[in-house]
Amino acid sequence: MKHPYDDMAAFYKASFMSYCPANLLLTLSINRINRYAPVFTQDNYLFITRRNVSAGSFIGQVSAFDQDIGRNGRIHRYRIYGGNDEKKFLIDEHGMITTDVSTNVFPADRIYTLNLESVYIYQSISVCSYLSISVSSLSIYLSIYLSIYLSIYLSHLSISISFSVFPFLSIYLSLSFCLYLSFYLSQFVHIYLSINVISFIFIYLIILNKEVTAIYLSIYLSISVCSYLSIYLSIYLSISVCSYLSIYLSIYLSIYLSIYLS
Fold first, then answer.
1. Confidence band (pLDDT; 50, 70, 90) for 95?
2. Dihedral-angle region of residue 127 (phi above 0 means left; psi in -120 to 50 means alpha; beta otherwise)
3. Transmembrane residues, as ranges (predicted)?
4. For 129, which of 17, 203, 210, 232 is 20 to 30 Å away at the CA?
């Protein structure tokens, strides 16, 4: 028995063959436009922060790059997806690490480990990187105030004894405390100040032999040591502008008084 649908199928088949060629070749090409995954500029990051910081303080910045062209190479966001961060840190779309708005005190000598991830805007392709944040218990202001005290004390002592070595010794002690402080902040600053201390000893020997005025020594120390250390503290440790100026002036004052009171 002939089914009614047979005539309908034959009709559509005849109509299709009359409008299309007998052999139809369809080629489908798919180009992969997102070939590369984002990669962090470093496999491991290390930042150092103080024990008492204001909420929302800047800790450091990470960055990743994508070799894809155009919008495919744009990093959409960064994310902290693991570690023992205890929800004390935040990261924004630019890779800037800050303390949480509710956090302003950290345990002393604590190291936090964060697992980071960079995410592509159209496809979640991410590569992991590890970040360590070390909390230093060193008091910045204690070492600075102590250096000022020793500078003034030794300067007054040099007046009573009339011996020219004490002003320079007080300057050296001020630099030594800054050097001790920098060891806990950054190896680069520590190396920089180590070179300055060696330079100070060398210049001091020249002054003793040739009786050169001490004003050049004060200018050299104030520019090379005070400004560099103060700028480093203000930028990388999130110290306010007022604290930055007080640190700069206090170190400069200790050097100036050491020479003036002599």
1. confident
2. beta
3. 130-154, 161-183, 189-207, 214-237, 243-261
4. 232
Q: In this structure, is the dihedral angle defined by the CA atoms of residues 124, 56, 225 and 197, taken in order, positive or negative? A: negative
| Cα–Cα dist 88/1, whole Å | 80
Contact by Cβ (8 Å): 47, 132:
yes
Q: Which pTM does this prediction carry?
A: 0.43
Please give the Cα distance from 142 to 98 (Å, whole number). 25
Counting DSSP H helices and E strands in the chain, the numbers are: 7, 9
List every span in the chain annotated with CATH 2.60.40.60: 39-136
- 10 Å Cβ neighbour count for 226? 21
Buried b or exposed e, range 180-198, using 16+ CB within 10 angstroms: ebbebbeeebbebbeebee
Q: What pLDDT digit, counting tens, does each position of 159-182 carry?
A: 444 445 545 555 555 555 555 555
CA distance 140 to 126: 39
Residue with tokens 């959409």: 76
